[in-house]
Design a protein that fits this description.
It is a single chain. The protein is mainly β. It has one helix and 41 strands. A hairpin with a 5-residue loop joins strand 8 and strand 9. The longest helix has 19 residues. The structure holds copper (II) ion (CU). The site of copper (II) ion (CU) has 6 residues, from loops.
Length: 503
């Protein structure tokens, strides 16, 4: 009898929660959707999808004016959100009153932007050009772009974080394991500072303006860069393959994701010690924190089989293992955990009361419903077909209708990593995920992607385990273009790159 009563009580409690969850969501999250090219707007903690706004091909960011948390310093206006498109070389602005795209600014050709940040006054963006080794400064009002190449070649500026005084853009370069200090006014690349470890990725700043916290992927640490002193003074050993960190609004604690460790570490910033470990499911990348510092958003790359029934699928492979987990920081308990669309790349959480778009205040649905189709951007001038991967020698061959290039995608390379084509002549690129056949990695959640920078309208496909994607198109412009894996697939995913050479 006791047992039955307990069951009834907990059952009605959960009904109450689900009926009221999103009506009472205190926060709204904005995420750049990565490979699906969408801005994703959702309730927190319910994780109900409120809006999806198609905006490009490979959307990264976001940076929001007016947000106090996330990877943005924010400004008081709360009017705009910015993201970059890595394949299309654009900065895209969204008007938060309607959540619609309001402006699109072209970056230099082949810039390959991977991240951006915004000054506290909302006037300036700093954009990291991972593929080109360049940095750009963008004036948000006029759209004026200034770009500068990093003085070291090659360089991979993967992440940008603007200091809290708005004067300097700190840029993580994973090839050279340094942080570049770029002054914004005048716009000038300064000296490189050793990052305190190998392969730096995310950078978070503390509210007092003193520290930049660097996640050094291959050193398993969080390095404390003294911004005024221009050097790393402390290193804290954290988890395996740390990628990103967020800092609470009081500057007391930082939270850092460890991709391989599948944990989030809580670091006390006064004592510079790890004080708590939160296991997550699994392979976390970006993090977000609610404005009241109570909820942590963990953007996981793998789902460890939890959401198989609702995952969108193509061919024999799983397509969408990404998920978001919301952790109540006081109890350490997971309050919400849902599979999501795309590969959410960065998230900013704002108070729901501050959101002006009435369309994102109510309703919402599950991010992914059973039977949902593959979520990829619309294409132009290309024929795309999917099927099972079949053993085939990689390289270029003469097919019935012209050149056929077989490219193997595996953890974590493309082979060949140079693909040749002629402008005006049709080329067929057959991309095959051979992780399973090649005994590369024993995890069905490893999904590769493929996009050619500069050929954004023709590319952006997903390559789940055992899947082949065939792209047939006619290159219109000659030159050397970077192609890259467009879905985070492992610790050296960023390095999974190649060249598309059109003569
Ligand atoms: Cu990959």
């Amino acid at each position: 009898m006791k047992k039955v009563l307990l069951y009834v009580v907990s059952f009605s409690f959960s009904i109450f929660l689900s009926a009221n969850a999103f009506a009472e969501d205190p926060f709204v999250g904005y995420a750049a959707g990565g490979y699906n090219g969408k801005l994703l707007v959702f309730g927190i903690p319910s994780l109900k999808l409120l809006k999806e706004v198609p905006a490009g091909v490979d959307l990264r960011g976001p940076a929001v004016s007016g947000a106090k948390t996330g990877n943005s310093n924010g400004s008081p206006d709360g009017k705009n959100l910015y993201a970059v498109d890595k394949a299309a070389n654009k900065v895209i602005s969204f008007d938060l009153a309607s959540s619609a795209v309001s402006k699109s600014v072209d970056l230099p050709a082949q810039f390959g932007p991977s991240h951006l940040d915004i000054t506290p006054d909302g006037k300036t963006l700093c954009v990291a050009g991972e593929l080109s080794g360049k940095i750009a400064k963008v004036d948000t009002a006029s759209g004026k772009v200034e770009a500068a190449a990093l003085p070291k070649k090659p360089a991979a500026p993967v992440y940008a974080a603007i200091t809290r005084d708005g004067k300097t853009c700190l840029v993580a370069d994973y090839i050279n394991s340094v942080v570049w200090m770029v002054t914004l006014d005048p716009f000038k690349v300064g000296e490189p500072i050793p990052s305190g470890g190998d392969n730096p990725h995310g950078i978070a700043t503390t509210p007092d303006g003193k520290w930049a916290l660097i996640s050094n992927k291959f050193s398993g640490n969080m390095a404390f860069l003294d911004i005024a002193g221009k050097k790393v003074t402390d290193k804290v050993t954290t988890g395996a393959v740390p990628i990103h960190a967020v800092v609470d609004s009081a500057g007391k604690f930082a939270y850092q994701s460890a991709f391989v460790g599948s944990v989030v570490k809580k670091i006390d910033l006064a004592t510079k010690k790890v004080v708590e470990t939160y296991p997550v499911q699994s392979r976390p990348g970006h993090l977000g924190i609610s404005p009241d510092d109570k909820l942590l958003l963990v953007l996981n790359k793998y789902s460890t089989g939890q959401f198989e029934k609702v995952q969108a699928k193509v061919g024999p492979g799983v397509v969408n293992p990404t998920n978001i987990q919301v952790i109540d920081l006081a109890s350490g308990k997971t309050v919400s955990h849902q599979p999501v669309l795309g590969e959410p790349f960065g998230v900013v959480a704002v108070a729901a009361a501050s959101v002006k778009d009435a369309g994102v205040k109510k309703g919402g649905a599950a991010f992914v419903s059973a039977g949902r189709e593959l979520d990829l951007p619309a294409k132009k001038g290309v024929k795309v077909t999917y099927g099972p991967a079949k053993p085939h020698k990689p390289g270029a061959f003469e097919g019935a209708g012209g050149a056929e290039v077989y490219v193997n995608a595996f953890s974590h390379q493309f082979a060949p990593n140079e693909v040749y084509a002629y402008a005006g002549e049709t080329v067929k690129i057959i991309l095959q995920n051979i992780d399973e056949k090649g005994n590369m990695i024993d995890n069905a959640d490893v999904v590769h992607g493929f996009a050619i920078n500069g050929y954004a309208e023709q590319t952006q496909v997903l390559l789940p385990r055992g899947v082949a994607a065939t792209l047939e198109f006619t290159p219109s412009k000659s030159g050397t273009f970077d192609f890259y894996c467009s879905n985070y697939c492992g610790a050296v995913h960023m390095e999974m790159r190649g060249k598309f050479i059109v003569e």
